[in-house]
Amino acid sequence: MTRLGTGAGGGDRRPRPAARRFAAAALALVALAAAGCARANAGGRSHLTVDVRIHHSAFDPSRFTFARGTTITFVIRNTDPIEHEFIVGDDTVQYYVEHTAHAGHDGSVPGQISIPAGQTRTTTYTFSRVTRRPGDMEFACHLPGHFRYGMHGPITVTA
Ligand SMILES: [Cu+2]
Fold first, then answer.
1. Do residues 90 and 124 make contact, with C-beta atoms less than 8 angstroms apart?
2. Mean pLDDT over all residues of the chain?
3. Ligand 1 mean position to 59 CA, how many Å?
4. Lowest-confidence range among 42-56, 86-100, 112-126?
């Protein structure tokens, strides 16, 4: 799993600035290599983290493209004062969740998670099939009225 960001410290030996710079450069190189793999290695086994923000009942980003075989951990930050959910699946999944009474999504199903107001939740999903048409893969929120309001977007999975 690859994630850009600051490494958690915790050791009692603090590296000197030069060593720290080297470590940062090395981390950046690893991240670049992983990003390259995600593109070049279609059908491979990349695991990436993607940050998603919900603000004013809208997803940002509003669409995604992934290579087949990529596992994505979505880190979804809900900045709104109301609950939302993040549901990954084809249009059959979206129809089902939209039209059935359901309790919150506790994260036990990959790609389905409820995000309480002002909180952050994660869910992980592996995109194993190339999309052929709109509706093959989407993400959405199905709290009453939210889908119709526009809380959904397409996911393209490339070969
Ligand atoms: Cu919502």
1. no
2. 81
3. 9
4. 42-56
Backbone angles phi, psi at 17, to 5 degrees: -50, -45
Q: Using the mean position of ligand 1's atoms as its centre, give its distance from the Cα of residue 53 in Å.
A: 12
Neighbours of ion ligand 1 (CB under 5 A): 84, 141, 143, 146, 151
For residue 61, the CA-to-ligand 1 centroid distance in Å is 15
Strands 152-158 and 138-140: antiparallel
What does pTM read for this prediction? 0.73
Q: Cα(83) to centroid of ligand 1, in Å?
A: 6
Distance, CA of 47 to CA of 157 (rounded, Å): 15
Measured in Å, residue 86 CA sits from the centre of ligand 1 at: 8
- Phi first, then psi, for residue 6 (nearest 5°) are -85, 140
CA angle 152, 68, 39 (to 5 degrees): 100
The pLDDT tens digits for 95-141 are 999 999 888 999 999 999 999 999 999 999 999 999 999 999 999 99
- Asked whether 66 and 127 are in contact (CB, 8 A), the reply is yes
Q: Could you tell me the distance, in angstroms and rounded to a whole number, from the CA of residue 57 to the centre of ligand 1?
A: 6
